[in-house]
């Protein structure tokens, strides 16, 4: 009779539900506060975009690992942001890292463990578009009254995952959900620290599909995912026209 230890699966699904609930509550509260506390414009230029790069660590979570801090691997990214207003922005990024795991790191029992690879180290490409919501209006305070140089934020969006496995390239859509803190280092320089978890639609990023021998279906059910801790530095570009249609969003 086949036995499955679902600890790591339950952990990942529980994390996803809790993070979604937390983000909905915080965004609802922050948005209501934003509506009743409109900021006023100042004279310094506002910038529409940020461009830069980030470095960090990526951690695989799946059949070979259920621990958030095991097998952390270096990852680098290019980042671009488009600011809708001091509270909201879109972030596009593309990064490269490695997913690494070992069957010895997972306490689950596999029906055919002897036939499975004992470890893996696969190249990872992650590309995505995320919506960022700042708890407070973000800026120096000179270009937008009430803006703060330090603010926490939430992020969620859609992404694309490519893993280079021994059996060939594996592609999947992913759902990134995360949070972080951004700090205005100078008038045009931004430092961002963030953590994200990427829930993917594939169970083959580690090169092994369904090691339990139990078929399942459903969005993000029994699939691999990965988390990213990243520190990025971006530079403001594309100054907003102060007089064009008197636009001071």
Précis, in short:
This protein is mainly β and 249 residues long.
Describe this structure as you would to a colleague.
Residues 1-5 and 32-41 have low confidence and may be disordered. The protein is built from one helix and eight strands; from the N terminus they run H-E-E-E-E-E-E-E-E. Helices cover 12% and strands 48% of the residues. It is mainly beta and 249 residues long.
Tell me the layout of helices and strands.
Elements (H helix, E strand, L loop, with lengths): L6 H30 L10 E15 L11 E13 L2 E15 L16 E16 L15 E16 L2 E17 L4 E12 L24 E15 L10
Q: How many angstroms does the end-to-end distance come to?
A: 63 Å
User: Over all CA atoms, what is the radius of gyration?
Assistant: 21 Å
Biggest pleated-sheet summary: 8 strands, antiparallel, barrel
Helix content: 10-25%
Residue windows where pLDDT falls under 50 for at least 5 positions: 1-5, 32-41
Shape category = elongated
Supply the number of helical segments: 1
Strand order, main sheet: write it out: 1-2-3-4-5-6-7-8
Structural features:
249 residues, mainly beta, 8 strands, elongated, disordered N terminus
